[in-house]
Amino acid sequence: MKFKLKHLVVVFFSLLFLVACEKSPNQAGNLVPKTVDEDPNLPAVEVNQTKLHLQTFGNPDNPVMIFLHGGPGAGDYRCFMRFLDTYNGYNLTDEYYIIMYDQRGAGLSRRYGNTDVAELHQVEELSLANYLKDLEEIVNIYSPNNKVILFGHSWGGMHAIMYVNAHPEKVAAVILSEPGSFNADIENELSISIASTNLFGEETNDFYWAHQNISPDDQNMLDYSYMNGFYNGLGLAAYHFDEVDKLPIFRFGTVANINDLGPDGETPDGVFTFDFSQNLHNFTTKVLFINGSLNEILTPEFQEKNRAFLPNSEIKIIENVGHDLIWTATADHVAFMKEYLDEVLPTSYK
Amino acid sequence: MKKIILLTTVIFVSQFAIAQNIAGKLNFKQNRVTLATGMDYSMLPTTIKYDRGFNFFNFKNPIEVGTEITIPVFDFDFMDNRLKINMKTDLWNNNNFFVHIKISPELVNSTLKTQTFKTISTEFELSPGYANENWYFGLEASYNYGFATYITHNQIFRDLIYQNVVDGWYKSSVSNIKLGFTALCSVKKIDFYLSAGILKTGKFNNFLFVPSMYGILGISYNF
């Protein structure tokens, strides 16, 4: 009897411990950082009925340069932080008023939707129209009377071109670092077979196995699981991300990433329908493309298809870097950008 | 002499009848070892099981109690593993039809490049089916619920992702649902079985990046 009682006491206190002393994985701040909706102290702006994590750097009197990160959802503006450093005595903030923000559904900005709808690319709030409207309102707030300079990486490059296509008169210069496709014809041709998961890879199986520890069932757990996948080797090998100097992030936006280009950019079957190229002939300013040499998907040859819509463009190749070139080759970027902007921007503008 | 032969025959046949198995089920004091692999939260993990039939609480049906360990084969270092205690019995049976229930407390250890997990969970399984001496077919529905998970993150995670991540015990971090079937064929003392079906999170969402399904091939020896 004593034996049973002792064990019952142990079981009772163990259960009490399990119930009373644990943290919730669903509470933002524990496993993932809080978004602007949960932490009012984060720098933010309210535009287009959403709240975006946004920061400005430099003198507001200088020309505005807006940075657009990749994704959608699989990046945020933390990847641009090295652009604020000084290289060879030059700092971008000396000449430009820099604006960096996390797009809706990404980084520490507001979350939307769920994976069921996102798998069909139908999360309404995460549409191309809304991504464009957010940027339009940011431009109107920070540079209502002057043209802006846009810098876009990967999907951010597509985002920048979407804006140029809609408002060529509002853009002073564009720098595109390994941008994605400018229209659906190019994107639908892009081979994604090399992007499939290697089911027999160690990283895949480690991540698979951990589905017995963590269930991606809400926005916090989804983003946490996604980060586990990315930082444990499930990034696309063909993009050649640096294994040592890894790209940091505030927080993945899983639903935004799965939703991809959304209801006005993609059918539920994943066929792309967008076109950011039809008005690009109205933008005659020279555009700078920057590409790494290692990327097997967004190759310099691939960029020729995009450049066909921008005859007045130049491409710079950085050797031995992959798709994370904005992080691993920032100094090269800044040097190219300074040279390019000195060339295309009139002295009066600066 | 005839009586002796008859009595011996009756005793032999009755013993045989007692010892005779319904495919896939253990009698009292019978043992089984199993080796299995397939797609089970990883590709081609190795599972080793031992089960024995007990007569607890004078329950009318044998209660199978056993233990199992599963280890993923990739990066084979025992850092990732699952330890289970299985308890299974027929909740109801009538001739060859049955509904069995299985409860399996388990401990799952996972080690990723950026963090480690230790989860205490329990799997509840309900399986209606049909079995005879040679084969068995059952549908299966199981729910796995993680009561507590201990998570620790390393400096890589803190540097690249979230500096202020909180280590420690987390409640209810995982739940998964399996819906599928098991088909088993028994040849003398050896059973071959296949279990397969869909595998979703507790809220019936798909897994991220990896297949939301399972498929396990196993071979057992009964003695």
Give a brief description:
The complex is a heterodimer of chains A (350) and B (223). By secondary structure, chain A is of the alpha/beta class.
Can you walk me through this structure?
The complex is a heterodimer of chains A (350) and B (223). Chain A has 350 residues and is of the alpha/beta class. Chain A has a single domain (44-344), classed as Rossmann fold (3-Layer(aba) Sandwich). Chain A has twelve helices and eight strands. Chain A has helices at residues 2-20, 92-95, 115-118, 128-142, 155-166, 184-189, 202-209, 219-234, 254-259, 300-307, 325-328, 330-344, and strands at 44-47, 50-57, 64-68, 97-101, 148-153, 171-177, 287-292, 313-318. Chain A has an eight-stranded mixed β-sheet with strand order 1-2-4-3-5-6-7-8, sandwiched between helices. Chain A is globular, with a radius of gyration of 22 Å. In chain B, 11% of the residues lie in helices and 60% in strands. Chain B has a single domain (2-222), classed as Beta Barrel (Lipocalin). In chain B, strand 2 and strand 3 form a beta hairpin. By secondary structure, chain B is mainly beta. Chain B has a ten-stranded antiparallel β-barrel with strand order 1-2-3-4-5-6-7-8-9-10. Chains A and B meet through helix 7 and helix 8 of A and strand 5, strand 6, strand 7, helix 2 and strand 8 of B.
Give the terminus-to-terminus CA distance of chain B: 33 Å
Helix and strand element order of chain A: HEEEHEHHEHEHHHHEHEHH
> Got a strand count of chain B?
10
Number of helices of chain B: 2
Derived structural class of chain A: alpha/beta
Overall average pLDDT of chain A: 91
* Class per helix and strand makeup of chain B: mainly beta
- What's the end-to-end separation of chain A, in Å? 87 Å
Strand content of chain B: over 45%
Largest interface: A-B, 51 and 56 residues
Question: What's the multimeric state?
Answer: heterodimer
Question: For the largest beta sheet of chain A, what order do the strands appear in spatially?
Answer: 1-2-4-3-5-6-7-8
CATH topology of chain B: Lipocalin
Q: Please identify, by name, the CATH architecture of chain A.
A: 3-Layer(aba) Sandwich
CATH class of chain A: Alpha Beta
Q: Which term fits the overall shape of chain B? A: elongated
The CATH architecture of chain B is Beta Barrel
